[in-house]
């Protein structure tokens, strides 16, 4: 056989006739004409095809887990994604805890509200801590400039009566829309979800002062407002906010636009919460929800 293969290789470019004899009948024979080069190419192609077929069969079937590290790579990628998501959620929860602590502290301490009137059109919020320990902390808010209204001159302080009144309920909802989520404190949902068209005006339900106006990973653009009587309202998932921290707002003022910002948003809506003295309330009993 070795000699035959050697002869065929040497004459691979020629036509070769192969004669087959029957031992029982030497006069009967069969002959075949072929080119060894083409035969070798055909055999090599068949071998390559078989090897490729076996490789694909192993790689794209469960057998591949025994030969390749596909499953481990997929699991590693999933673990990395989950880890990054957990880190983002942890950061957002820390921010939320800080915000709630700040609101509870302000409500508990009963902070005075004063206005620092200057000759400039618009001023930033200033949170001052006196050198001596007073009975109550003092919070200085900015008064937004209103076109057509002349600002007072000089360094004058006007004490606001924004917290001396009474919040009246039931109030109109912050936005006209469809109620898609109710108050469920057992699962950490401390407010109502009201779906509305993106960009719709969102209005405050009572007079108050903007305690916080910022963006977080979970809630997107959010606004926290302090009201009289220890009440506070929270609005989340705005596409944009109108006021900044320290602004005084009146009942019915536009404070933002409906959006779907934040990881917890699913479609354009406003998440609305109502708190009193640091305790969450079911807003459905306090606003006129359709």
Task: Give a quick rundown of the structure.
This protein has helices at residues 2-10, 36-59, 64-67, 70-109; strands at residues 16-21, 29-34, 112-117, 126-128, 138-141, 156-159, 178-181, 191-195, 201-203, 208-216, 220-226, 231-241, 248-249, 254-258, 269-276, 279-281. The chain is of the alpha+beta class and 290 residues long.
Describe the protein in words.
The chain is of the alpha+beta class. It has 3 domains: 2-59, no CATH class; 109-158, no CATH class; 165-285, Glucose Permease (Domain IIA). 27% of the residues lie in helices and 30% in strands. It has 4 helices and 16 strands. The strands form 3 sheets. Strands 7, 8, 9, 10, 11, 12, 13, 14, 15 and 16 form a 10-stranded antiparallel beta sheet that branches. It has a 4-stranded mixed beta sheet with strand order 4-5-3-6, with no helix packed on it. A two-stranded antiparallel ribbon has the order 1-2. β1 (16-21) and β2 (29-34) form a beta hairpin. The longest helix has 40 residues, at 70-109. The radius of gyration is 39 Å and the shape is rod-shaped. 21% of the residues are buried.
Shape field? rod-shaped
Strand-residue proportion: 25-35%
Helix amount, in percent?
25-40%
Q: Which second-level CATH architecture of the largest domain applies?
A: Distorted Sandwich
Domain count: the total is: 3
CATH class assignment of the largest domain: Mainly Beta
Number of strands: 16
CATH topology of the largest domain: Glucose Permease (Domain IIA)
Q: Residue ranges: pLDDT <50 for 5 or more in a row?
A: 110-159
Average pLDDT rating: 76
SSE run: HEEHHHEEEEEEEEEEEEEE
Instruction: Summarize the main sheet.
Output: 10 strands, antiparallel
Query: Number of helical runs?
Result: 4
Q: Termini distance?
A: 94 Å
């Amino acid at each position: 056989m070795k000699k035959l293969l050697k002869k065929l290789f040497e004459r691979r470019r020629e036509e070769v006739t192969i004669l087959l004899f029957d031992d029982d009948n030497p006069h009967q024979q069969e002959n075949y004409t072929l080119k060894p080069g083409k035969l070798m190419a055909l055999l090599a192609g068949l071998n390559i095809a078989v090897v490729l077929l076996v490789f694909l069969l192993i790689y794209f079937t469960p057998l591949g887990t025994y030969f390749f590290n596909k499953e481990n790579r997929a699991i590693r990628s999933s673990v990395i994604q989950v880890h990054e998501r957990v880190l983002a959620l942890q950061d957002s929860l820390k921010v939320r805890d800080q915000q709630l602590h700040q609101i509870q502290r302000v409500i508990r301490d009963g902070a005075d509200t004063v206005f620092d009137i200057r000759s400039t059109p618009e001023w930033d919020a200033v949170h001052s801590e006196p050198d001596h320990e007073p009975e109550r902390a003092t919070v200085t808010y900015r008064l937004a400039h209103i076109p057509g209204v002349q600002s007072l001159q000089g360094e004058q302080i006007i004490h606001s009566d924004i917290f001396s009144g009474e919040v009246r309920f039931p109030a109109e909802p912050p936005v006209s829309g469809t109620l898609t989520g109710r108050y469920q404190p057992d699962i950490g949902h401390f407010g109502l979800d009201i779906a509305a068209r993106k960009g719709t005006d969102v209005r405050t339900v009572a007079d108050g002062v903007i305690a916080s106006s910022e963006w977080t990973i979970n809630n997107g653009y959010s606004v926290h407002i302090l009201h009289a009587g220890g009440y506070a309202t929270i609005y989340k998932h705005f596409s944009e906010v109108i006021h900044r921290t320290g602004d005084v707002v009146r009942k019915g003022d536009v404070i933002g636009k409906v959006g779907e910002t934040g990881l917890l948003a699913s479609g354009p809506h406003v998440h609305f919460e109502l708190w009193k003295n640091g305790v969450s309330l079911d807003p459905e009993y306090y606003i006129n929800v359709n």
